[in-house]
Amino acid sequence: MIKNNKLINYIIVILFIFMISFKIISNELFLLYTNILCYLCIFVIIVVSIYFTIKLRFLQFNIFKMISSIKNNSINDLKALFMSMGAKIGVGSIVGISLAIYVSGPGVLLWIWIISLLSSILTYCESYLGCMYKKGNQGGVFYYISRGINNRVLSIIYTFVLIFVYAVGFIGIQSNTIVKSINHVININKYIIVIFLCLCIAIIVFKNIKSIIDFMAKLVPIMCFLYIIFGLFILFDDIDRVMFIFNLILDDGFRLDRAIIGVVVVGLQRGIFATEVGIGTSSIVSGISSNNKIGQGMFQVMGVHFISLVIITITGFIIIASDYSYVGNVNGVEIIFDIFNHYYGFFGKMGLCVVIILFAISTIISGYYYSIKGVEFLKGSLSNSNILFMKILVVLLVFIGGVINSSIIWSVIDTLVLFLLLINIYAIFCLRKSVAV
Description:
This protein is mainly α. Helix content is about 80%, strand content about 0%.
């Protein structure tokens, strides 16, 4: 194990050096490097997911086990689920999916379903291990890398990357998306929007962790309910085309031509990013939950299923039901806003704007929670001044993210997420004998 730990540490450091070098030398080289790393991650996720699916006897498809978990859950397990879902159900569930369908066609949705259903077993594994190696109210991927496979160096690398991805990256991206969304409905100076957003986020994060967890437990169900009602209301106009759309997804997903490779890759990639399977974040909320490893694991699996089969499916059907080929601008939130405006007018734009803002705020709050847990792992404990610094930093990052070009952030974050995937899946596989049903 020690030799393997040293080897994986060297590999990760070398990959980091390559990433930084290629980014400095050429954007083309950096893009090629990211694509190769992405293909590697997809391959690893599929292989390891198949292994655990067989080992755990297709647990992610066991409906009876899920029902049993619901009956035997505690309120803390439910809060842990909502905190985790708050991070996963971000603008990627709307904007990312619409962009994927626009670029590669309806068949993308089929492969999102496939990879999400298959790889959701990894969410079970990381949640199980997060509970197993938790220390008091501190748990998650940091601890099963550090204590489970005894690789303190790798756990530190993972933690720094995660803090950068969620604190600097996702918080800034969500803030930028909120600004763009509001400007699509009402033309307001972006600095006014950002200042108001910073005040709202400050009101939330300047409370204690328990209050933030309670807030997320209320926000996530409300925003999901609104989006489902809003989505079903829109789809009701095309109710007679639902089966046609479903058949179109199947036909396009299994078409026999060269373009199918791009459809499969985009679908697999988007499914992984939209549900965060294998990244390790689902395990971080184990500090909130009870010590019921199996129950918490099944809860997190249900969360992945809900995102892929409900939230993403509604988004996909709305996009496919619309003649999205007319949209000229394919950057960011413009796609879905143009479609909603074209077919449903101001009401559609306003409703979508509200939903996107709620989704983005939930990701910002979850990003703050993950970051503060990461810092807590690195320092052992947090003083009041440490916590105050983190709160101020988050508000500052919300402001910066809202006023700069989001492409600056996106260019590196996607690649760093792949590092989180590789490190976490390596740790899960090393601890495979510990994961049980």
